[in-house]
Amino acid sequence: MTEAQKRDVDLLIVHHGLFWPGLQPIRGPLRRQLRIAFVNDIALYSAHLPLDIHPKIGNNAQLVGALGLKSLRPFLEEKGQPVGLKVRASLPRNQIVRKLQKALSGPVKVFDFGPKQTRVIGIVTGAAGSEIYRVADEKIDTFITGEAPHWAAVAAEELGVNLLLGGHYATEVFGVKALAAHLSKRFRVPWEFIDYPTGL
Predict the structure, then answer these.
(1) Could you tell me which of 61, 118, 148, 197 has the fewest CB atoms within 10 Å of its CB?
(2) Pick from 92, 165, 156, 154: nearest CA to 128
(3) The Cα angle at residue 64 between residues 120 and 134, in degrees rounded to 5
(4) How far is CA 24 from CA 9, 19, 46, 117, 141, in A?
(5) How far apart (Å, rounded) are the C-alpha atoms in residues 154 and 160?
(6) Taking residues 189-198, what's their average pLDDT?
(7) How far apart are CA 174 and CA 6, in angstroms?
(8) Alpha helices, H only, the chain
């Protein structure tokens, strides 16, 4: 919020909103953030799961596009809604890793326990590594997500699945950029991306 204030932003689009942990008293850091928004007349829009799963501008769809993959299908249902995309693609695993590194502009943690030649790739941006068993049940041999708990790497080895971790932040910047670009074109207003990586 402070950086948005410095740049004289009117509308701030974020993925994880101020109320992500749930309703809470407005005090301390939350109060400071809201005060900056109110005093500087900054409108705040956050969209978490809707922005992850949107079929065109969502994080998953945008990452699939950045990897040059096509013929995607929704998978991994959560509360009645699929939260990921899967793609049939026969590609060398090392080629997928290189494409992912390029798309994310950064390192990828690779647990290469699956086939060297992919058949079915699953993508769920953010923190979906704990879903490794459900992913394997979907016959996915290469799973791309942001982060995973320690045990998920062990499970990937047991299941024979390639697990590629690109970072929670790095895999979830696509949607806000795509939404901002869409709004910019639709309403003829400028936009910029405020990069605030955490390293996670």
Answers:
(1) 197
(2) 165
(3) 45
(4) 26, 8, 17, 48, 41
(5) 10
(6) 94
(7) 23
(8) 2-6, 28-39, 49-53, 59-66, 93-104, 132-137, 150-159, 168-171, 174-187
Strands of 81-88's sheet, edge to edge? 72-78, 81-88, 120-124, 142-145, 162-165, 109-112
Query: Whole-angstrom Cα distance, residue 17 to residue 113?
Result: 35
Residue 180: both structure tokens together = 């901002």
Q: Could you confirm whether domain 2-47+173-187 is CATH 3.40.1390.30?
A: yes
As a whole number of angstroms, the distance between CA 51 and CA 41 comes to 24
Mean pLDDT of 157-177: 97
Q: Is 167 left (phi over 0), alpha (psi -120 to 50) or beta?
A: left
pTM (global) more than 0.85 = yes
Task: Give yes or no on whether 2-47+173-187 and 51-171 have one common fold.
Answer: yes
Mean confidence (pLDDT) of the chain: 94
Record: fold of 51-171: 3.40.1390
pLDDT at position 158:
98
Give domain limits for the chain: 2-47+173-187, 51-171
Give the span between the Cα atoms of 54 and 60, in whole angstroms.
8
- DSSP class per residue in 20-76: TT-S--S-HHHHHHHHHHHHTT-EEEE-SHHHHH-TTTSHHHHHHHHTT--SEEEEE
Whole-angstrom Cα distance, residue 174 to residue 58?
7
